[in-house]
């Protein structure tokens, strides 16, 4: 029987690339997204990934769950001091992954599965003039993952993949994708650069990793020119 993964934010970007990669590797993939534009072969539950009822509906589609990927999220938006934007981003980027892992944990325990939360270098490494809410949510995600890794141990592994500048349309870049002076590798990443790491974290080759953060940022976090950062 194929392993089963639940992926939030399945319709686009990193979530879509991860769904396609896992399907090609023989996984059964169930996705959650507000848009019904899922990859071929993926079972979709339409709705808000931060809604417990939607999460329960998706989880009810399977008796076993080996992988959970929290890729849904909101980009920086609103004025930095917009209280409504703060609440919305914290709910979408931090509370929603917390609820997904909380609800999925019993099934992951039974299968000795793994969860991967999609974070960012914004927050844990960089501050954000545009969106303190986004930075706070992504920084909090790493603390959440470390805590959930302790709660889930020894049966469940929980890790974070922290992308840098990824060319997905999630947050339109201020510089051309192939001319990134702020990235040592010189370009924005692609969704597949991240999905490959997520698939690895879900698999047996990462069996001794939990509570870890893997940066996929082309070296931006080690760059020493913060004046170029957005």
Structural topology:
Elements: E1 4-8, H1 13-24, E2 28-33, E3 43-46, H2 52-59, E4 67-70, H3 83-111, E5 114-118, H4 132-152, E6 157-163, H5 191-202, E7 213-216
Parallel strand pairs: 1-2, 1-4, 2-3, 4-5, 5-6, 6-7
Q: Write down how many β-strands occur, each being a DSSP E stretch of 2 or more residues.
A: 7
The percentage helix is 25-40%
> Would you tell me the structural class of the helices and strands?
alpha/beta
Q: What is the alpha-carbon Rg in Å? A: 17 Å
What is the H/E string?
EHEEHEHEHEHE
Report the span from N to C terminus: 46 Å
Helix count equals 5
The parts where pLDDT drops under 50 for at least 5 residues are: none
Q: Provide the β-strand percentage band.
A: 15-25%
Describe the structure.
The chain is an alpha/beta fold. Helices cover 36% and strands 15% of the residues. It contains five helices and seven strands, in the order E-H-E-E-H-E-H-E-H-E-H-E. The protein has helices at residues 13-24, 52-59, 83-111, 132-152, 191-202; strands at 4-8, 28-33, 43-46, 67-70, 114-118, 157-163, 213-216. Strands 3-2-1-4-5-6-7 form a seven-stranded parallel β-sheet, with helices on both faces. Helix 4 (132-152) links the parallel strand 5 (114-118) and strand 6. The longest helix has 29 residues, at 83-111. The relative contact order is 0.15.
């Amino acid at each position: 029987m194929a392993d089963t993964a639940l992926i939030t934010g399945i319709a686009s970007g990193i979530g879509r690339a991860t769904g396609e990669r896992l399907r090609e590797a023989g996984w059964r993939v169930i996705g959650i997204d507000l848009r019904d534009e899922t990859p071929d072969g993926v079972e979709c539950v339409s709705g808000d990934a931060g809604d417990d009822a939607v999460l329960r509906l998706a989880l009810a589609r399977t008796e076993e769950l080996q992988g959970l990927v929290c890729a849904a999220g909101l980009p920086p938006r609103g004025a930095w001091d917009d209280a409504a934007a703060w609440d919305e981003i914290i709910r979408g980027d931090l509370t929603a992954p917390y609820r997904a892992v909380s609800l999925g944990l019993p099934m992951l325990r039974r299968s000795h599965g793994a969860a991967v939360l999609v974070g960012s270098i914004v927050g844990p490494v960089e501050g954000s003039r545009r969106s303190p809410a986004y930075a706070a949510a992504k920084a909090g995600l790493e603390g959440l993952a470390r805590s959930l890794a302790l709660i889930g141990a020894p049966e469940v592994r929980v890790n974070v993949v922290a992308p840098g500048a990824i060319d997905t349309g999630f947050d339109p870049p201020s510089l051309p994708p192939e001319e990134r002076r702020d990235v040592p590798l010189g370009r924005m990443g692609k969704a597949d650069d991240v999905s490959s790491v997520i698939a690895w974290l879900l698999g047996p080759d990462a069996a001794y990793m939990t509570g870890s953060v893997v940066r996929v940022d082309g070296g931006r976090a080690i760059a020493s020119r913060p004046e170029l950062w957005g």
